[in-house]
Amino acid sequence: MGRFAVMAAVFLLGCSLLSAADTDTCKVYAAVGKNLTLSFELSYKLSSRDGLKWTHNGTTVYWRDSSGLIYLMADSVSSTGSLLLNNLQFSSAGFYEATVSNPSQRETKIWSGRVCVVDAVTKPQLTYDCDFKAGAVVLNCKAPSPQALLFSWTLGTTLLQKEMGQTLRLPLERLKGGSVACVVNNKASGANSDAVLPVCKSPTPPPRVPAPGPGQVCLPLKTFGAMLVGGAGLVLVLLIVIIVLCCRHKRTGAQMRSGNKAELRLTSVNKQELGSIGPDYETMPASEDYPCPSPRPSPRACKNTAEAQQKPLLAAPAEEEQKPSPVPKPRTKLTQTPDA
C-alpha cells in the first residue's frame, strides 16, 4: 500500500506539472494592433438555449445563460460562440477558456489556451555588396530584433529552400535568374522586402605600364609624387630666404642714405658758420667831421666831401645782408696839410 500511494502521488504531480506547462505554452500568437478570433468546434450546432461563458485569466468577460440573457459583454461574440478580439495589445495576452452549458445543466469545457501577443514584423531592408575576388554577391536582410525572426529568400519566383539565414551569398552567374528578395517572419506576422536586382560590374583594370628598357629608371608613382612635393617645398624655402635678404638689404640702404644726408646737412651748416666769421673792419661814425685839405676850402665844400665819403659806409650793411661774407673797401684817411 505504501508503495502504491507513492506511485499515485508521483503520477498526480506529473499530471499537474504537465497541465501547468500546457497553460504556460502559447497556443495562439498574435501581433499588436491586429484582430484575433478564438473559435471552437462542437459536435452540434450551438443554439440560443445553450449557455456560454468566456474567461480571461480567470475573469469572466462574457456570460450568456440558457434563457439568452447576457450578463457581461466582451468585444464581440459570433453566433457560433467564437470570441472576437479587436486591436490587440500586450494586455490582451493571457489564458482564455470557453464553457458551454447545455439544457441538462451540465457544463462542458470546449476550448482553452494561452494567447501570446508580440510585436508585428516591420518591412526589412535589403542591401548587397559585390565580391569580385570571390565572384559572388553578398546580400544582407536588415530587420530589427533578428534573433526572434525566421528568414527566407526568393530568386525570381523560386524559393531558395536551403537559405534561411540573414545573409545570402550568390555567385554572379546566378543573378541571371532574376531579382532577389528576403522574407522575415515571427510567430504572429511576416513581411517581404523590395525585390533587388544586384548590378556588379568588374572595375576597369589599371593600364599596363611597359617595363623600363636598358639604362632607364622607373620610379613608383608614390616616389615620384614625393619628389615633386619635396622640390616644391625647397623652391618655396628659397623664395622666402630671397625675400628676407632683399628686405634686409633695402632697410640697410635706407639707413645709410639717411646717415649721409645728415652728414651733408651738418657740413653745410658748419661752412655757413665759418663763412660768417670775418676780420674786424674799422668803421667811422656818421657824425665824424672829415678835415678838408689845404688850401682851406669853404665850409660848404667840406660838408659835401664828408657826405660823399659817408655814403659807401652806410650802404655796407645792406650788402652784408645779401652776401654771406662781404669785403668792404679800406678806408683812406685824408692827410691834413698845415695852413700856408
TrEMBL record:
Signal peptide from the UniProt entry: 1-20
Residue numbers spanned by region Disordered: 275-340
Key words, A-Z: Glycoprotein, Membrane, Signal, Transmembrane, Transmembrane helix
Protein name: Uncharacterized protein LOC114857930
UniProt entry tagged with the keyword Transmembrane helix: yes
Intracellular or extracellular location(s): Membrane
InterPro entries: CD2/SLAM_rcpt (IPR015631), Ig-like_dom_sf (IPR036179), Ig-like_fold (IPR013783)
Primary subcellular site in the record, as a coarse category: membrane
Transmembrane domains' residue ranges: 224-247
Keyword Transcription: no
UniProt organism field: Betta splendens (Siamese fighting fish)
PANTHER family: HEPATIC AND GLIAL CELL ADHESION MOLECULE, SIGNALING LYMPHOCYTIC ACTIVATION MOLECULE
PROSITE patterns reported for this sequence: PROKAR_LIPOPROTEIN
Taxon lineage: Eukaryota, Metazoa, Chordata, Craniata, Vertebrata
